[in-house]
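## Example record

The block below lists the input lines for one assembly entry, exactly as stored, with component labels intact.
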Amino acid sequence: MLDNIYLSIYHDLVNQIEQGSLPPDSKLPSENELAVQYSTSRETVRKALHLLSQHGYIHKIKGKGSFVLHVNKFNFPVSGLVSFKELTKRMRKKATTKVISLKRGRPSPYIATQLNISRTEEVWEVIRVREIDGEKIILDKDYFRSFIPPLTVEICEDSIYEYLDQTLTVGISFAKKFITIESITEEDQAWLDHKEYPMIAVVRNYVHLEDNTLFQYSESRHRPDKFRFVDFARRA
Amino acid sequence: MLDNIYLSIYHDLVNQIEQGSLPPDSKLPSENELAVQYSTSRETVRKALHLLSQHGYIHKIKGKGSFVLHVNKFNFPVSGLVSFKELTKRMRKKATTKVISLKRGRPSPYIATQLNISRTEEVWEVIRVREIDGEKIILDKDYFRSFIPPLTVEICEDSIYEYLDQTLTVGISFAKKFITIESITEEDQAWLDHKEYPMIAVVRNYVHLEDNTLFQYSESRHRPDKFRFVDFARRA
DNA sequence: AAGTGGTCTAGACCACCTG
DNA sequence: AGGTGGTCTAGACCACTTG
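Predicted structure tokens for the full assembly:
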């Protein structure tokens, strides 16, 4: 919506690919043609195509053209900051989120360390259980620094990210995720339908704002049989 | 080494960051200054900085400048096509690779499906065990389409990717990784020091060449306590 | 030879941050 | 006001593919 030409071209082409008017293996118009179509310069078109390429939508071949990839066979997001809500929407599953606890207060030493703040600075703590097809699959523990706008149970049941995107003045910039596999804890056992699996997949996520401050730490604890992580990586 | 200006600027800055002459939180010269330093245009400098940003080395703030991130705290690659050899070199561990079997022949139905080829087309099969600090931790099963240059045990003990990078005329373009957690198989038990862990982390990797053909399928099976996957993701 | 994407230039205007 | 990064333009030359 911004007056950003290359982003609007990008979104337009993404739509065409997802709607099917640009099917897999089909060839996009050449960069020069697109520049004329969108009344812009070729470099600007190239910026849009670069984004499509980075996100796994197209593939460019020198001398030949740009071609649509058939990636979304698994209907899954390319690795990135994708919220649970977006994710389940794509997978067309019945998914619900139950808020176990929501409070603001002093962090534990562990959380203070993870967020790299002093123990006297208050944090928001949100603990949620994600249910998919009637089974409690994911235990989400989120910790936010207290300068974010106040959270409510309704927001946490919906999408915290949507809320923050709309209310935060400074945007989200980048995140680091660490995936490990650990022994199940009593807390996991208490909240999840763990089916005797002794281990759990843990995704630790450190989210930074545009000014580089770390503002969120989260642990997403997944029952191993339902865990799935996808990574799309381009070379160089 | 190519006559590629922005790549050489990128590599130069990566070196400065990794050597420490550009420490974390320090500010890079402005884009205009870099353009003068490298005797090139600002857009070319920006291309290099964009790469640094994508790979988690720097962080740009409008109106202020570009700053070095302190990411490599965990000394781990940003998600991508990183080989075992590069990986262990960074972690400074004693790591060895043992080739269990190396052969060329008809694929199993499963492998033919994964590689999306007919069962009559031969494939290379490489099965390897990765040992770290004396423990057999990872079972790697690699399948290559037969048009690649011939493999030897020596190559497989070193780095298949380095070999392919040097010998393949058409380069590697992109890869999709799928991470799941599964029950341990008899094959895993036979080759790994599995320590009674009943589950195993499986990374399935589909690697494509620049002409978009899928040329490799691999399964990397990790003992859960040693498994670690890192993902760096930028927003938008 | 013509078309394609890959790289590069030398400008330009803007929004943002700092003095 | 001056510096910064973000976007955009209208050219240019190159390497690659195809007819």
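The CA atoms of residues 104 and 124 of chain A lie 4 Å apart. The beta strands of chain A are 58-61, 65-68, 95-105, 123-132, 135-145, 172-183, 199-209, 214-222, 229-234.
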